[in-house]
Amino acid sequence: MKFIYITILQLCLLFFQADAQRIKSYFNVDNYTHTVNYDHYKAVFYVQKPEIGSGNVKSDRKYAWFSGNQIRYTQGGYSGKLLDGVYNEFYDTKGLKTQGLFEMGLKSGKWKSWGEDGKLDSIVHYSSGKANGRFEKYDQDGVLLERGKYDDGQLNGKLEKRISNDSIQVIRYKKGKVMAYQPGKAVKITKWLKSIFKKDKKPKVK
């Protein structure tokens, strides 16, 4: 009979340990969003899981990390938990301010920002912490104002700036350096470009 009681007690202890582990996992704050409040807006984000290592830290990248209830940015290093996952900023009015993705502390993929009135402000693509790919900027009315391309953090190719309703200015870059530019002159918008920069046309957002 004593053996049976001991066996039952051991089984109960095993079940308790398993439940405790599940409860610990359930309430692990690393699996949930963190929030940092600023003046007029707040940031909501995830941090890296404890089992994920730091990987290879690159000296030319700026890392976002969380420590002391603050988001901090440091080039070439960090001392806390790297931001890792979906990142959102919200105005006090609950509207979106910024939306993007961090991968091990580095910006990745498409990042968008909005004005407090909800109108699109910019779209920038990132790869491993550097602007990489197409970008667009909009004016306060949500009209396309500027667009171009980044390559490894540097402007590359044709940059188009809207000067007026009927004209744009074109600057050509190569690895961040201006290759062709005529100050004070604007290139007339073709029918195709005019449809893109048309003032009353709503910007397309994917």
Keywords:
206 residues, alpha+beta, 3 domains, 13-stranded antiparallel sheet, 3-stranded antiparallel sheet, 2 helices, globular
Q: Give the strand content.
A: over 45%
The major sheet is characterized as: 13 strands, antiparallel
Encode the helix/strand succession as letters: HEEEEEEEEEEEEEEEEH
**Morphology call:** globular
How much helix, percentage-wise, in residues?
Answer: 10-25%
Oligomer: single chain
Total helices: the number is: 2
Report a brief summary of the structure:
The protein has 206 residues and is an alpha+beta fold. Helices cover 16% and strands 46% of the residues.
Report on this structure.
The protein has helices at about 1-25, 190-195; strands spanning about 35-40, 40-45, 60-65, 70-75, 80, 85-90, 95-105, 105-115, 120-125, 130-140, 145-150, 155, 155-160, 165-175, 175-180, 185-190. By secondary structure, it is an alpha+beta fold. The chain folds into three domains: about 1-30; about 35-120, no CATH class; about 140-205, no CATH class. Strands 1, 2, 6, 7, 8, 9, 10, 11, 12, 13, 14, 15 and 16 form a 13-stranded antiparallel sheet that branches. It is globular, with a radius of gyration of 25 Å.
Topology:
Blueprint: H1 2-26, E1 34-38, E2 41-45, E3 62-67, E4 70-75, E5 81-82, E6 85-91, E7 96-103, E8 106-114, E9 120-127, E10 130-138, E11 144-151, E12 154-155, E13 157-162, E14 167-174, E15 177-180, E16 187-188, H2 191-197
